[in-house]
Design brief:
Elements (H helix, E strand, L loop, with lengths): L4 E5 L12 H11 L4 E5 L7 H6 L7 E4 L2 E4 L1 H9 L11 H28 L4 H24 L12 H10 L12 H11 L2 H21 L1
Parallel strand pairs: 1-2
Antiparallel strand pairs: 1-3, 3-4
Bound molecules: glutathione.
The site of glutathione (GSH) has 8 residues, from helix 3.
């Protein structure tokens, strides 16, 4: 995989900075030691014909490289992990993939629902009524995850691509104290976020937003 470019939004509101899913891709590339360039799409341009040719749904991230164009953050992280034994150990491939799916398909839906409700619809009556149910659905997932992590530093014992997807999923509710209510899970997220590749990815995403905003001003 060469000549890598990662597409994200040129600018997003502060509540979304550090959450947009190109963060996962930047982190995985950092862990794999693969250099990349950032490319940007304006939120208003995401449904243009030109961008829809890259991403049929007009979303970010998109990864372009010598291997072609890829959409879906999970598929992109998987493709990067295919180039990096540390992210997808040869003897644990199926389990790594299973936990990548668990992050995206089992944990992310309730977490994302709560995040959207709180960050984008908090003033609306339906969100106030639905919130307690949404919180208990998240809590059930967090409790199970915390139990799974008993005695483990990472989901598979060692750090893999699954931890990138799980950590970035749990960050969607960073505005709540729900993860902090599970000390083992909280320590897990902090452990993952302490990795130099995460710190670099976060720094670079935030620096790109700051640079783009100052150019636009
Ligand atoms: N399942 C997709 C979700 C992509 C997605 O929803 N991206 C958000 C940013 S994190 C987006 O582009 N939102 C713009 C919109 O919803 O129109 C993935 O993991 O790549």
């Amino acid at each position: 995989m060469e000549n890598i470019a990662v597409w994200g939004f040129r600018s997003v509101p502060p509540f979304a900075q550090g959450l947009v899913r190109d963060l996962r891709v930047r982190w995985a590339l950092g862990e794999a030691g693969l250099a990349y360039e950032s490319r940007f799409i304006d939120v208003e341009e995401r449904h243009s014909d030109a961008y829809r040719r890259k991403h049929p749904f007009g979303l970010v991230p998109v990864l372009e490289s010598s291997d072609g164009t890829l959409i879906e953050s999970g598929a992109i992280v998987h493709a990067i992990a295919e180039h990096c034994e540390a992210l997808m150990p040869a003897d644990r491939r199926a389990e790594t993939l299973a936990w990548m799916f668990a992050a995206l398909d089992t944990v992310e839906p309730p977490v994302w629902t709560l995040s959207v409700m709180d960050l984008q619809h908090h003033d609306e009556e339906w969100a106030r009524l639905r919130r307690p149910g949404a919180v208990s659905e998240v809590m059930a997932r967090l409790a199970a995850l915390s139990e799974w992590l008993d005695g483990c530093e990472y989901l598979l014992g060692r750090f893999t691509a699954a931890d990138i997807l799980m950590t970035t999923t749990l960050r969607f509710i960073r505005h709540t104290d729900l993860v902090a209510g599970f000390p083992r899970l909280d320590a897990y997220v902090k452990r993952c976020e302490a990795r130099p590749a995460f710190q670099a990815a976060l720094h670079d995403q935030l620096a790109d937003y700051a640079r783009n905003e100052s150019v636009a001003a």
